[in-house]
Amino acid sequence: MSALVFLMTRRFVHSFTRAFNNPGRSAGTVVVVGLLLLAYGGPLISGGQRPTAFASLLQLMPPLEIISSVLTLMVFGFLALSFEVAMNYTRAFTDSDVGILFPTPLPRKLVFFFSLFSRGLLGTFAGACLIAYFFFSTSRSLFAHVSAGWSLWPALTGAAGFALLFLVANAAILEIGVLSGLGVFNGKISKPRLRATVLAVFALFIIFPLWHFSEYTKPGAALFATFLRQLNQPPSSLLFLPFRAIADCALISFGGLTPAIPEAVFFWTAVFLVCTKAIISYTPTLYEYAINLAQGNALRREMMKKTSLSLPDSVIRKASAGKPVPLWRWMARWNPTGAAALFWRNLLLVRRFGGFLIVKVYVAVTLILGAGIVILRTMRPGMPVSELLGLGGIIQFFLLFAFVPSSVAWLSQTLNRFELQKPLPLSATSMVAAELLTPSLAVLAASFFGLVVLGLIFPGKLALLILGYLTVGSGFIIMTALMFIVLLFNPDQNDTLQRMLFGFALMIVFLLAFVPSGIVIAISFFVHTPLPWTTLLVVTVNGSCAYALLALASRKYQSFNPTD
Amino acid sequence: MTPLLSITHLAKYFNGLKAVDGVSFDLQPGEIVGLLGPNGAGKTTTLRCICGILRPDAGLIVADGHSLRDEEQQAKSLMAFVPETPNPYDLLTVREHIRFVAMCYGTLDLFEASIEELLGRFELKEKEDALCVTLSKGMKQKLMIACAFVHRATIFLFDEPMVGLDPKSQFMLKSDMHRLRAEGASILVSTHQLDTAEKLCDRVVIMQEGKKLAEGSIQQLQQQAAMRGNSLEEVFLRLTGEQS
Asked: What is the ipTM of this complex?
């Protein structure tokens, strides 16, 4: 055990020291940690003092019940994501473990669980912080709202209880994911059957609350508040109980000890213990499963480095069978030179990578959304257009975040292609522009479809929709450029701290990307600028920001050292 | 003489395919055995089964009287494994890495006593405080070999140990193997370098398609292939059918 603790602590210490060896990364680390401390600590420290300056504004904040529901949904979403990651978990075990740790006489159960929890839970740390951030940032408003005065101990108990219960739940979910993976690996369950079961469970969590909502809602009621409130009512509340209790724990200072908390403590502990026992029953094959994951991870890293290998299995199988690989006909005729050739290659890679799958999903969801809005409008004619438009806009906006993982993967691959790309006789700016444009164009194309659908439903709001489309589209270009800069400072995604820093920085990036357009829109709103002018201003400001960031990214790319 | 390592009817399947199929051989104390075979013959899988990374589907592995299946920890304590691809933990320094391996085997006393000598012998002294991520492939390989000497192993398993090493380091590794043999250790070396195997090994085991094709000293194999006086390379090619 001491050897494993030694390994973990030394790796973390060196990772941290390494973060301060590079001046850029060092500054970035300080900024990220500083912002986090400010964001988390600020509301907590000042939580006891009732704010006066913004008291009137705080009266508009949602009540405890709604915050609790939002937190419940966040916890559910995060744990669902955690499960998906755990099922195909690739970072918990490495080639180093296989060659060095597995042949040692350390008990295999100990090695397996230690690696799984130390790295698996650490990998989900950023997400936990995001949820905690939501809690802290809303706590100030809660202190102003809830009559129960603020006191230190319940607040600390709540924070500790939330952290502990979240950790147990996350560990249990990780174990369920690993257990599913072990079941497939050992031939106990077929992959299609597992996938169908998982989909059925997820569908239950989506369809059931929506059905309940349609039963619960009254004509003219505010959509979002009604939806969130009904999550507190049975039968939806029963379904979400294990997740709600974690949210209740965080809000214990305001809501007190709810019956859900002890029930959830029992539930998650029981799930954890049962899963642990089940995993232990697989002890003889634990290392082989871990090797499988480590090899998958190594292969994926290798594939990212070699563009010739970066094709999905299905494409390789087709090519091996003599079938033509996917190619647009116009691409075969188009023979660009210079930086445009990079863009040509990128399009080809994305086409063969199956990267347009996310666009197809986006289109499908947008069509479902459009149909839903039309049905709601027909069923409840009194429903205000602004709420329906808001619903459509918000869903469209959050759908764009589905492009973030593939964009990050793309940008990581760009850095891995460094040795292939850097010797090319092209300027760094044009190379970086070609790389940043690829994921951004996919977003622009997909959200254009959203614009068309919403434009057909709300033709009178077309100017507003165009403003939204261009704001989000150009904001995404800024976001991609910012992500690339952050990645240039934290290129080693196998380094836990760099990965964590990157994760934290992403949260800041998401906010920063929409700050310029947000400021322009806010000013335009106050000075009553016509919408077309606001749109033009947003595009100009965002374009300038994107250009400045491109210059910065190119400069950093020029001096980039992958082993730094 | 009681063998230090005994492999009996070892079998390992991957998705129904036999990677290793009923392989049996022994290693006597003070003996260097070469494990030869074409690519995909099952050499690495055999070594991985012996050192306990992979669990055999059939067969028995006994290290100095300890069955790997029933007394895994005792058996593993006697073995040192150097993998084909050196993958040390990137974020440990060289010294920490060796220390970590010693901690796993509970041999910190040996680490304290031998670390300076090991760092000097494997030319790692200047890099002792460098992170492994900064090492060249050859240096990583030297580190992996150094780690094999930091616990009280009597059975050494090397998977392509010469790959990535400069001539001087190759010479030193061979000297180390001879020294270990003289001290009574058993060494199993998987290699494609047949000239090295010819000079270094007392016996060789040739594998092909997961099966043991031949076993014996160079002379015995020459007799078996009816190629007396020929090199191991020629004998190997004849036995594996890769020479027309």
From this structure: 0.77
